[in-house]
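WARN no homologs supplied; continuing
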Amino acid sequence: MGAPLAPPITNRSDLIGFAERLQGVSEVGFDTEFHAEQTYYSKVMLLQFSTPDEVVLIDPLAPEVKSALGGFLELIKMRGQTVLGHALERDLEIFLRLNGGLPKKIFDTQVAAAFLDTGGPIGLGPLLQKRLNVEVDKLYTRADWGRRPLPPGQAAYAADDVRHLFALVASLREELEARDRLAWVEEECAALLNPERLVAAAPDTAWRRVGRKPSDGRARAILVEVAAERERIAEETNVPPRRVVGDEVLVDLSRRAPRRASELDSDTRRKPAPNLKKHANRWLEAIQIGLEADPPAEAVVPKGPGKAVADLAEWLASSTLEAVDISPHLLPGGFFNRLRGVIETPADSQEDLTQRLEVEGWREALLAEPLWQLLGREAKVVVSRDGESLRANLFREPEEEP
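OK structure emitted
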């Protein structure tokens, strides 16, 4: 890939030519540049592709390209080509909206790295430096990708996001295969190809992202409904949710529970919220639904001895992954809350434990036995220092002779 970087594709014939060159390729590197500050959905400004032989930029703002992009991505999907990329979730969201479907298979280098390192999610630049000793310039991270013609420096920056993917994937795969973890990465990558986790956030969970939630149960029930309504309005108007109304407005509505349109806005806020008046009936209806609803379930917070067991179980789960160089951030969402729930209401069996923790595949293989030993049986915890970190190990008491 030493050839000079060509300008972004802006016409249909060049896009068709690239599609033809991709015909015999089994894997293709993929990345996007987008703007998401002003809209609910990310607005794609540039697409980057790579093969072992070339890097190609595609301009989705060009009219001829814009109308043909869905069909181009359909070819990648139909051919079953593996899409390679780093932190692909937002890029897959764009792929889904442009095409209506998703690739058959992906390999996410950020996911792969998490199975070989206990650190948090790693950026592409540090990962390239660590594994390939390649430095990439991050000067244009916050650049305006809507500029046309695209400045050469920005184009080169965008190309670097896919230029080294094949070498990086080869390096990761080699170590994953040596440690018998490639199947785990493939399992995790396959889980990303779920349209439901890529489309707009579910309105009924939007309240969880609101800051400074009220503690009162009635107010929290109202918050669930007004946050859901804000999410729906944001999606319909394609603006970020906080551009509809801020979190502080939702919390204020939840605490006051106004019944009339004239009561929606509050004198306690420095700036008025025009969208309260504009969508007054929708806010009032949401508030009424919240008044009649049950409060959302609170996070489980064990007390007394249960808290000590919860802290130990959480540490054991993280330590078990770290002991084999897997990042704890790969634990599924809500895992620790479910774990605390099991401590409050003990599991009947190891199978019951794994079902309630919602762990399967590689997570079940690594976590089920140690957690069951701690929570369901007699066990000793042995803490040892490995280098600069602490490790937890469990072993059962020897059974007494009859």
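The radius of gyration is 25 Å.
OK
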